[in-house]
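Predict structure. Chain length: 337.
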Amino acid sequence: MAKNEKAVASVLAFEKKLVPSDGYFYGTTWENRTEQSALKLIEKSVRGTISNRLKPAVAGDPLKLNAEVEKANLQKVDACALGENQDTLKVTFTLKVLGGIEQPSACNNETFFNSYQTVAKNYIAQYGFSELSKRYALNIANARFLWRNRVGAEKVEVVVTVNELEAVTFDAFDYPLHDFENVDAKVQQLADQIAQALKGEVPYLLIKIEAYALVGKAQEVYPSEELVLDKGKGDKSKILYQVNDVAAMHSQKIGNALRTIDTWYPEFDDKKTAIAIEPYGAVTNLGKAYRTPKAKQDFFSLFDKYALGESLENTEQEHYVMAVLVRGGVFGQSSKD
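Prediction complete.
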């Protein structure tokens, strides 16, 4: 019985504390931003070439290769671009920051609940979410959430309005993507406001974020791409995301950018690249998990110790564990484990 009392709860869930909206795409000009229009998706029908890797028997035979190349690669795709007189992409979204990290949304083990609550309150008292908030604030200031739209932009500005108060403007290229050590007064002010909400000192924080990227007249821009599970029913090979006929970016993709703050994983010294906060340090486009249970660096290995009152090796591991809880998720331990 005592063993069960000390175990992690079998039903355990945390609601996310950073809640972004979808990001909406508008076209405007850098010099006159008051004139803007919602960007709509464009359907294109294109005749592409065969460019995939072929089987050795085909690639090694000129006749078979020519026959394969002659086949038309017909596609219908969605695209999105600025108007011919527009040179700037505007992406706007809101971010709600919530508190209550010490209160799981579901927990069926009172002993574990009391132990976790003590640990969470101690973390808030000792660190006050200052480190995590600083990193979230920097990812807003550097416009990481623009993803591909940030690449090749001549200028990027981010305008942040907190609780409908005075707006603050950041030059995104002043803030690096993978270094969270240096902050200025503007970033620190935003970080302090985010920390206040995470600590529960204010009921919530609502942040309006507008990013302007000078990408060039009529240039293509990149909303989120939809995941098509049943490709047999559609005739498009690429479907982009839109909301009420306005091109948009998924809230999940924005959230992933904001929580790309993990520089504490084991291989960071070699990679020098921040990764998103994930229980196993998963980076899907690389097909790799940077935090493995074998190395005891994954969230569950650390959380099971930390939440039951055991000390972790360093403060970085504590920050990582709390960042996963800010992310939210279902973390219960099966009674069969």
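Summary: The longest strand covers residues 88-98.
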